[in-house]
Amino acid sequence: MSSIRVFLADDHETVREGLRAILSADPEISVVGEAADGQAAVDSVQSLKPDVVVMDVTMPRLNGFQATQAIKQCCPDTSVLVLTRHAQDAYVHELLRVGAAGYVLKQSRSEELLRAVHSVASGEQYVDGSMAAAVRERAKMRPAVRSGATQTGPALSPREEQVIRLVALGYSNKEIAATLEVSVKTIEAHKANAGQKLGLNTRADVVRYAHMRGWLNEVG
C-alpha cells in the first residue's frame, strides 16, 4: 500500500516535532515536509503536492484560513486537515466552507489525529468527535439554499455581520447603536443571534474569529 504523504504547517517547532513523531509511527503515513508560516506552506505544497496538509489556524504571514483557501485553489487534490486548539463551531464552518476536509482539536488524543488523516486522505470529511454533534446541530440552523449552492453552516445576515465586525474592533453596544442609528436593544439582539449561529460566547471569541476571517486587516 502506498503511504499517505503528509505536510505539516504550524509555527511552533515543538508541535511539528510532536506531530512528526505521532504520524511517522503509522506505517501508512510519511511526513514529506513542514513549514512555520502559512505562505511557506502554500509555496511548499505547490511543489510537493502532498496528499494531506495538517494545518494550524494561527500562523504568521498567512493564517490557516487564508492558507487553506490558497492551497485549495492551487492544489485541489490536496486535502487540508485543520489541527487547532480553537473549539468554536464558527471555525469549523468557515474552514470547511473554504475547502478544508477535516477539523481536529490539539486537545484530542493522537488516535483522533490519525483517524482524521486517514479519513481525509480517502476523500471523506472529518470533524473531531468532541465537536461533531454540536456542529451537526448548529448546521441545521442554516436557511435553505438553492440547488447547487454550498453552505456548511448558518449564515449571518448582513446586519449581524456588520455588528460582529464592530464588536471585534472594540466598539461598545452603545457606540455601535449610534453608528448604525438603531437602538442598543437592536444591537444586543443582532449580537446574540450572531453569537448563537457561530458558537461565539465572548468578545475574545469574536476577536479571534474576526482575525481568522481577515476582518481586522481590512481597516487602515
Describe the 3D structure:
- By secondary structure, the protein is of the alpha/beta class.
- It has 2 domains: 135 residues, Response regulator (Rossmann fold, 3-Layer(aba) Sandwich); 60 residues, Arc Repressor Mutant, subunit A, CATH 1.10.10.
- It is 49% helix and 13% strand.
- It has a 6-stranded parallel β-sheet, with helices on both faces.
- The longest helix is centred in the C-terminal third of the chain and has 15 residues.
- About 5% of the residues have low confidence.
CATH architecture of the largest domain: 3-Layer(aba) Sandwich
Strand content: 5-15%
Question: Average pLDDT across residues?
Answer: 85
CATH topology of the largest domain: Rossmann fold
What is the number of strand segments? 6
Number of helices: 10
User: How are the strands of the biggest sheet laid out side by side?
Assistant: 2-1-3-4-5-6
**What is the highest CATH level, the class of the largest domain?**
Alpha Beta
Largest sheet: 6 strands, parallel
**Structural class designation:** alpha/beta
Q: Which term fits the overall shape?
A: elongated
How big is the Rg?
A: 18 Å
In the residues, how many domains can be counted? 2
Would you list the SSEs in sequence order as H and E?
A: EHEHEHEHEHEHHHHH
Helix content: 40-55%
The CATH superfamily of the largest domain turns out to be Response regulator
Question: Are there runs of 5+ residues with pLDDT below 50, and where?
Answer: 143-152
Distance between the termini: 52 Å
